[in-house]
């Protein structure tokens, strides 16, 4: 009697079921595979080495060179128990699939609450969860654990977790991923993309910044279809099934480029390039569907220095919305959840660019851009601050691991001796540009010249 082997995969993925223990001289002619429906009724899948197409599957399984059973485009019903029969005995394999279901499944919209159920399914419904060492985790696209006050995560069992969230405009076409680990080893991941009705995404950029606007996978196009980007109803580019990109209006595409993956690049953001961008699928000249609707805002900042001290800067961010004027004030240093982190990043960057202390700093713009990207990567909750753990992970990724005490000391030095567990972007820039102390020893990938004549080469980010 052999112990049952577990194989994990996800709906839409692929699985390889091993027929271990068997020794075959020339072929798999003596191998049979069967699926046990409801764990008792066998249905032949392979008979004497020949695949018998199951009536319940849309695609045909296949045998590997070692007589393993390969199943592509897994469906929920493919989960369950399989038996490999051969002269040396029988092997039982339990194929357990990770899947996501959504409540409600239709009519998703901004401000609506949605619940995503991630669960391990052996057949239909939930398996009896007696799995030791199995853990389900909601993760970001970078593979880190999803964290933040807006996410409510609960566990019905070790094999079933629920993510509940109130949808934002930026959640349109967002990929939510659930990861299964067994004894801390990643076994499989399943994802679900939320599509919101009439959703308009927003992106914010400072003048001169480069942006990348996503669309959809060009492989989804059928014969005669194309993807088209437009700005305020003016067609810009089209991409056909053969990968050919065509500029549709001469003179309207300066600073813009459509890429082979259907994304749109904006190089050197200006007021002229702000507005409502739309990526649509067309058949001939008829619009079939809209994949992305993105409003790009241009942010500019004016900095007022009343008495020459950084702490007394008053900052105002001007948001140019679809070439109309809408002004958002971000006074003082107190970010709010309703204002995107990028507003404070642009504002604080303006403050440092206008600070006489850094007038002699070489490549200041390049450094601020590098710092901005690093900061936004670890501001996972878009709250305008990095917590202690985020700062610790950032430094570990940069190869400069710090203890909790060192991190506290670093933050204390930057914020003037106060005891803090978070650091805002202004203090972060001050730490990166101004301190350069023995604790940190980090700077961007440029040779820097310190404001007061120190030209030592510093370490790279």
From TrEMBL:
Source organism per UniProt: Scleropages formosus (Asian bonytongue)
Keywords: Acetylation, Calcium, Cell membrane, Cell projection, Cytoplasm, Cytoskeleton, Membrane, Metal-binding, Phosphoprotein, Repeat
Record protein name field: Ig-like domain-containing protein
Species lineage: Eukaryota, Metazoa, Chordata, Craniata, Vertebrata
GO CC annotation terms, alphabetical: actin filament; ruffle membrane
Signal peptide (from-to): none
SUPFAM superfamilies: EF-hand, Immunoglobulin
Pfam family, one: AIF-1
A Gene Ontology molecular function term of the record: calcium ion binding
Primary localisation category: membrane
InterPro entries: AIF-1_EF_pair (IPR049025), AIF1/AIF1L (IPR042433), EF-hand-dom_pair (IPR011992), Ig-like_dom (IPR007110), Ig-like_dom_sf (IPR036179), Ig-like_fold (IPR013783), Ig_sub (IPR003599), Ig_sub2 (IPR003598)
GO BP terms, alphabetized: actin filament bundle assembly; ruffle assembly
Subcellular location(s) per record: Cell membrane; Cell projection; Cytoplasm, Cytoskeleton
Record's bilayer topology term: Peripheral membrane protein
PANTHER family hit by this protein: ALLOGRAFT INFLAMMATORY FACTOR 1, ALLOGRAFT INFLAMMATORY FACTOR-1
Cross-referenced PROSITE patterns: IG_LIKE
Cited Gene3D superfamilies: EF-hand, Immunoglobulins
Ig-like domain span: 1-94, 191-295
